[in-house]
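Input (structure):
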């Protein structure tokens, strides 16, 4: 589809200009005032045009437990999550739709879904998420969440030796599922990508990581993982490897310009240097890190060391939202208390670049997406600057990032296809989605997790609580 956006406000260096933007065959063809109209005319007057953001780490199916999860640290929180997470493919479908919709309505045109797989229905789970993301029209990076060790293996053992239940699926079987998914669903030119995505060092063997490296190399896939989200994981890495998790992954060869790593809260300065050297990307998930008491990631240190940083919402039951603008705001101003030198603080303009170009670089497509540049794919979002939450008029990006914008996305395009027009979706029936989410759920107040009851005592002991 070809179209011309007229008289939109765009950011250029340290100022704004009013200009036209022409899109031909899904790519930005021209940026200049008073362009000849090609295709459909889009009124950009009193609207801010930005490249689409990347929701660079989430777990779509967690949507079914948002608002109900107990106030627990990650290791115990996961136990509760799994106790109450009986999923079927219809729930996977609806929550993927919901994740895509909320991401788009907060400026995101791409989503990295660290997708929880239904045991025994792994390929069906992936197919269901692919179907949902295609229907909405968001650019999807599906990272099937895999592990080959049981949940208790993720908790440091301290002095005691614990025998863990073997995982129900072998490492080889898991890798075969991922390879089958790549062959069936990996279609970057159609906006659907498969990533290799071991959940993290806490629940994955070296064999799983090296198998993922081999698949990544063979099929040119990006790599994704959680990394050192909690203090417990830092202790666990020392127990397992006798060195830091970053040093170990570096030795395995998992870290590269293809690799994005969620959280990265508990890293040493030497670890940070390794991430910079390997050109790995850190995905900052500030809200879940606060919700689970995981800590504050040293994002300013990463930026000063030259590490690429992007933003993620994380799953909707460790954040309870998929509002990307909220994650960007908190993920920026949170660090005003971690470094007293205000010259290091993240400006709204820098935040927008991290969320767009930083997200694209983390997926190895910074040359194709992430900025208003001629020749790049048209993943674009137009914000309504007449919206009450963006008034009175000052700095448009400052209002968007530092304010509490609501219902501000006027239009959005992915690969040149319009998915939101005048604030409404062109691709799916949002009222029907709302009704289905309502009908397939019920009000809850409290519940007890049997697995938390079993492991809480040993967790508190080993963590010195």
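Output (sequence):
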């Amino acid at each position: 589809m070809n179209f011309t956006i007229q008289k939109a406000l765009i950011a250029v260096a340290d100022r704004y200009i009013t200009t036209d933007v022409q899109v031909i065959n899904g790519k930005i063809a021209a940026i200049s005032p008073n362009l000849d109209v090609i295709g459909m005319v889009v009124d950009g007057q009193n609207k801010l045009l930005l490249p689409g953001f990347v929701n660079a780490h989430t777990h779509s199916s967690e949507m079914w437990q948002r608002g109900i999860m107990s106030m627990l640290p990650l290791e115990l929180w996961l136990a509760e999550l799994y106790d109450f997470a009986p999923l079927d493919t219809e729930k996977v479908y609806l929550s993927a739709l919901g994740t895509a919709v909320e991401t788009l309505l907060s400026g995101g045109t791409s989503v990295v879904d660290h997708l929880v797989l239904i045991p025994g229905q792994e390929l069906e789970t992936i197919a269901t998420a692919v179907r949902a993301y295609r229907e909405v029209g968001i650019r999807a990076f599906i990272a099937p969440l895999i592990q080959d060790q049981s949940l208790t293996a993720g908790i440091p053992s301290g002095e005691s030796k614990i025998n863990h239940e073997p995982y129900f699926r072998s490492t080889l079987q898991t890798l075969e599922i991922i390879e089958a998914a790549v062959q069936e669903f990996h279609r970057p030119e159609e906006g659907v990508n498969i990533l290799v995505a071991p959940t993290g060092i806490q629940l994955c063997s070296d064999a799983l990581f090296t198998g993922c490296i081999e698949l990544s190399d063979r099929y040119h896939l990006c790599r994704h993982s959680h990394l050192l989200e909690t203090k417990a994981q830092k202790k666990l890495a020392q127990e397992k490897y006798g060195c830091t998790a970053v040093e170990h992954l570096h030795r395995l060869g998992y870290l590269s310009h293809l690799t994005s790593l969620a959280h990265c809260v508990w890293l040493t300065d030497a670890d940070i240097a390794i991430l910079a050297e390997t050109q790995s990307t850190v995905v900052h998930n500030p809200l879940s890190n606060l919700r689970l008491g995981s800590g504050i990631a040293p994002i300013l240190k990463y930026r000063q060391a030259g590490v690429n940083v992007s933003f993620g919402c994380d799953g909707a039951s460790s954040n309870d939202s998929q509002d990307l603008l909220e994650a960007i705001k908190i993920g920026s101003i949170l660090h005003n208390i971690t470094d007293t030198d205000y010259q290091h603080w993240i400006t709204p303009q820098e935040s927008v670049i991290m969320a767009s170009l930083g997200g694209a670089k983390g997926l190895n497509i910074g040359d194709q997406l992430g900025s208003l540049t001629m020749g790049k794919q048209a993943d674009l979002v137009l914000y309504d600057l007449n919206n009450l939450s963006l008034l009175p008029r000052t700095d448009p990006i400052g209002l968007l990032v530092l304010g509490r914008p609501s219902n501000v996305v006027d239009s959005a395009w992915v690969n040149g296809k319009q998915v939101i027009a005048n604030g409404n979706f062109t691709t799916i029936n949002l009222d029907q989605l709302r009704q289905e989410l309502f009908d397939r759920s019920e009000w809850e107040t409290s519940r007890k997790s049997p697995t938390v009851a079993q492991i809480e005592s040993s967790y508190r002991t080993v963590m010195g609580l």
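Notes: The mean pLDDT is 96. The CA atoms of residues 328 and 389 lie 17 Å apart.
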